[in-house]
Here is the input.
Amino acid sequence: MPRYAMVIDRQRCVGCGACSIACRNENNLSEGVYWSHKITETSGVFPNVRFHYLPTLCNHCTDAPCVRGCPTRAMHKAENGITMHAPKKCIGCRYCMINCPYGVIYFNWKESHQFWKNKQVLIPEVTSSPVEETRKVGGTVIPYYNPEREATLAGIRPKGVVEKCTFCDHRIENGLLPRCVEACPADARIFGDLNNPQSNVNHLLGKFKPFRLQEALGTDPAVYYIRDFSASNYPRTKGAV
Amino acid sequence: MKSKIWFGILGVGILLGLWTAFRVYTVGFSLYAKTDVLVWTLPLSTYIFFSLTSAGLAFVSSIPVVFGVHRYDIIEKRTVYLEIAVLLGSFVCLILHIGSPLKVIYIFLSPNPSSPLWWLAMLYHVYLVALLIAFWRINIGKVSKPIGIIVFLIAIGTSTTLGWLMGMTDARPSLNASFFSVYFPLTGFGSGIAALLLVSLVYEQLRGPTGSDKLAELYNELARIMGMIAGVVLILFLWRTIVGGISSTSEDLRAFQHMIGSIPYHIELWLGLVVPAVLMLIPQIRKTSRGKIAAGFLFLLGMFAGRLEFVLSGVIRPLGQMTEGRPEFVSYMPTAYEVFVTLAGFSVMLLVYTLGERYFNLHATPEQR
Here is the structure.
């Protein structure tokens, strides 16, 4: 059985956000929900300041605290290592959100895609309402609805339950890469099987010293980061007193 | 006339709860002051408050049944009934906290024993049934020791499992401590005594004395125990502050350090612990009904604020990608709907208790053992 993992090459990542946009389209995400996201920070003191960009997603931890804490096994581990969620079993207690150290689980506080359910026309007889717009392009609830998501999960998750990244398990089942991996224009995301010694992920993990987020917690994340990017240089110095 | 006004007030509280339930399940939980960061707030902390108070009442009710201290027999019936009322209040808050309560059936169909939440759900089901049986037995004058022992053990289970629930969250050290598995049962015991003193003595104030000198002595004894608990809890509370809030340099504890300056923290410390402990230290105050009522009320107020303080300590600091675009600490102010949930919990509890006073002769002492 494979054990899927992702390597994110920070030297290749340009921070364009294509992964996040592709994820939104693929998984029919609602406003405010980010299965694929980022952590940005700055270091230094002005004018010597630098911007850092770290792409984030569910870490599909081997010892996932969200899975341990879920009272109904709605959050569970698939055999291929993916942390999956079954909305029909989710009671909406949000204990997984409390347990997750990475802040990657979202709760549907209200019906998803409220904007696209609006029947109000901005300018009568000139513009369409969001509902009309969706109907005209043949969408379901939203104009860009992706029915393929329904293969393993509710196409749009109902209110009162949580949701998170599934490594695009519905695509993997069909031999396709996760959508964020495919969409990355810089090939900064590399997906593969940790149990296959010849996989690209193992090749990279053997070549570069990786780090994972919050490793000290012992969750054994399946998302690895390698390298960093810096085009800058500085004059050789020993500093001064 | 007074009772009509009382039932009217409780009715309004319950109607507000029903209105909240309708709105929350039609519009969504966005009506609460919740974000992806503030996932647990006032409804959950109120549930914890009720739950621990109920466990504390179970400890009180176990004194005569489990430990054989028979001078407590005269308050056994009232204590067990109040326990049921408080537990029902906690269920109201819990139901209005979780997103999909109808799916709770999956706790049975798809159990996960590694989850403290699963154990809590299991324990509460048995707890309610055991309490109802215990009260039924007491109501017919026959106290059941086996049921009393079961209730006592489950109360230990619920109050300590709540500590496990918080302690399992390695990512949130402000919640993470085996500390709470000690702190919860102890504060629950204090809350149980405070609730019992408060409702019993307020009832006496309204209806005139219903008990004997023995009962008055027992209330004095309970007040003394409550004062001692307030003192012990105060010491634990201060050490929690010193260890986690002052001497620790851990970044992970900054949420708790932030909460040390908050209103709920100071309500718990001063009104909930210091003042009741001092009041109950002074015999002239401790022996008066009003002194006991004031101390009981303040202790409960402090515990109510304290439950909110530690829930917020765990959630106000965003983690991981939730930090993006957010300040280091998010602020919290409950919405009207969250307040309605709390009011509904109290209204249900008080309504059930008032009906008990009216129909079940709660000051009766079980005759057989």
Remarks:
- The domain at 10-326+337-356 of chain B is CATH 1.20.1630.10 (Formate dehydrogenase/DMSO reductase fold).
- The mean pLDDT of chain B is 94.
